[in-house]
Queue: 2 jobs
Job 1
Amino acid sequence: MLSVQIRKQFRSNARQRFLLDITATFAPGFTVLFGPSGAGKSTLLDCIAGLQQPDSGEIRLGEESFFDAAGALSLPPQRRELAYVFQSLALFPHLSVEQNIRYGLDKLTLPEQTERSNSIARTFRIGNLLTRRPTELSGGEKQRVALARSLITRPRVLLLDEPLNGLDSALRRSILEDLRAWYDANRIPILYVTHNREEVDAIGERVVTLANGRVQESGAPGAILDAPRSIELAHAAGFENVLPAIVVEHRSTDGVMRVSLDHAACEIEIPLGDGEPGSEVRVAIRAGDILIATQAPHFLSARNILPGIVESLETRGAMVAIRVKAGAIFQVHVTPGAVRALDLSPGLLVWLVIKTHSCHLVR
Amino acid sequence: MNAEALFLSLRLAATVSFLLLVLALPLAYGLAFSTWRGKFLVESVVALPLVLPPTVLGFYALVAMGPRGPLGKIWQSLFGHSLAFTFAGLVLASMLYSLPFAVQPLVASFESLDRRLLDASAVLGANRARTFLRVIVPLAWPGVLTALVLSFAHTLGEFGVVLMVGGNLPGITRTVSIDIYDRVQALDYAAARQTALLLLLVSFVVLAIVYGVNRRVWSPWPAK
């Protein structure tokens, strides 16, 4: 069990300040650290690794103290015996793959080094790359080598800072499977920083969300990321629509409340939450959770049906982002096929269909 | 051409550039990676020989090495003879004179290294010495080569400091630049021309090597 309770103040100038203030514990298993960039995720990992010093607090692994401001103790990174895979991977460019992965084993005998390097090369399927230089590797191969180099030391904690950034999802899944296989034999706390929702779903047993240097929430990924409770997390979790709203009335018996959007331009129904009538709130809706109809829909269970005008369409890969003015401006994601079938174009009158439970109240 | 003077100059330049590298590596490491606030003072002292006239530098070196100077006294008690007007004295003064030429390329190349590589080395259990020898120096080798070659070339061409500290003793302190000066004074232009041309060629080759491996030789202290 890794427990962290630290504060660190950053001053880039007189006005801009950033306070990292984290209290959290990490049990063996995967914990995803999720949050917008600048939330303090990498700084937290650096403090745990001993690469940055907190101003106060303590970091412990079980009974052993890594950092204790009160006792003026800070174990250097060399003696914390943990592994850290950086976002940049930081493979040594002048060493071969084999020299890279053996780098942390200099205190072992040569036969021991060989045995461990063979074993980790099998786990991460890099046996055929050992003589190459890092510049001769593909993105996925580099990531496998970086993982192998870190894990060969048999660390007590594994810190991963977006290690699979920039890989396609098939490659990501395959590397994650190998990492899982390694974890099954080495049950240690693994802190995994990512922005990627797919990775969260693939690995997350537990998510800790950070924003502005603080822990916002922790728990199961679905419960937290599908109902973000702060605006920064809503953006990070992929909610394209975060709309200012005013609570109109509570309907406690139905478990819903009505809010008006954008200076009473339109009203929608959302799940009952905090906020007295008249108070200002924000509503987050995923662009992919909104349906578009070109005729007024009837006989639907969805409670929110808003007429609006298509303002613009923009193709992004396999998806089309549409801006619709329906009182407020809504972002809607549909497939290119849907655009063709409905003959969607700017100026067209459409109806937006939003389920009550696709609307999330954000602080 | 005076072969003795040329040989002396080469021996001096080789000794100075080697000793200077040993001194400059840890100094440059400190300047590149320390977060100490007073660092700029050390940077200024290291850069002083760039702006001071060699005669001023030579003057202070001579006073320090003289029989009543602090360095001279220590040397006298250790070796029983004076430090001024000896080869050793020349080496010490030349090291001072060429110090920025060894330190600055090293600092520049150390500072351009990806810090995450050093972090990775530390997290993998390597102490500072191992990180320095296995990561920093191999990756900063253009800087190391530049430092070595520039301090060699700079020492080879020095004049003012040698004249102040070493005087003009054949085989001991009469270096090639002093020799050229002597020849010109004696109106022996043919010999001066020969030696000067040789020095010109050596300097050009040396600089060509440096610029070939590293194009940032003359960069000032890099901005953070």
Job 2
Amino acid sequence: MLLDEQLIAHMAARDEAALVELHRRYAPYLAAMARRMLRDPDEIQQGVQDAFVKAWDNAHRFDADKASAKTWLVTLAHRLFINRLRGRRLTTVPLEQWDAPSQPPDHVERIHMREAVATLEPDERKLIELAFYQGHSHRELAEVTGTPLGTVKTRLRRALGKLQQHLKGGDA
Amino acid sequence: MSDDTLIAYALGLLDDHEAREVERHLESHPQDAARVREHLESLTAVVLSEAPEPLPDGAEAALLERIREQPSVDEDHEKVSAPPPITTLPRRPRARSWLALAATLALLAVGFGALRPLATDLWVGWRVNRYQARAGAVTEVLTDAGGERLGQLVRLTDNRLLVAMDEPPPRRQVYQAWEIAGDTLSSRGTWQGRLFAIDPLAANSTFGVTLEPPGGSAQPTSTPLLLFPL
């Protein structure tokens, strides 16, 4: 089975089969993200399709030595969705500077990711979801949750720190 | 730059202006760039830990239909990719620099809707030239059974190939690459434009190309355009 990064290299060479395979691997997860962010079924479908068209168009820019394909794809899709959510034009995304090549997330890896998310306290998880899926700024998060701004920032830092620690294999 | 700002950037909370400022900062601050990478990896994990959502029937077909409605591959690449940055041109051999410069000028022309065929030729030539410049690269002319030229192939020492066809496939068809190793026939991918890079083929295998319906076929459905023993 080809790595995600190899699929993107094939996409850069205009291999439609590679696009279809990447779509098979990740579209259901991007659709789940889109559902949380966009909610409207038509917008979800359109948003996921937009993400893969953008990946297809930008595959030749992807650097497999520097970027994880799944992080590249998820971030690319998230930026599209959040801008669709806000109804404003696209922002630029630095696609070249991310982590090392990786395999598609298999069952074990997904379990590991779920375990990482499970390490979050309910208030931390809520903040992450409100910020990441709904695009609320720090200040808006403070208003929405009735929490002091400084506490919001601290909890976000702590939440991401926990995720990173768990994903790196340390105790969370 | 504060970690709160880097987190806000990773979460996509910054406006365009703020995001560009962060991106400029990251270019010269690798430690902060590494922090952003970590945050993005964590957020990716959040997304991939969610239950996947079933896709509607026809999602793949709709995606393929949409990308096929876009400008052809070579044209699209010419607009956005690859010629080396101007600052690196002086380090390159003179002939290649001139070629890259010509390609760049052609890209500008493409932006105004002119000289597209010329730009396509320059782009293909530039890519072929880059492969040919690698140590041990061998260039072969591809012909059909009647000896008519179809394109060229650059073969690297590890049996990686760059195929440059003289013409794109006919409308509503794609080129499909095949590897024949012993009794085993396997697809090596499809492409719509003129250029296709192929991962290393087995030694002593045969490389073939057919025209297939969009998306490719499990087995060849047409007479091979070419068969090329490696």
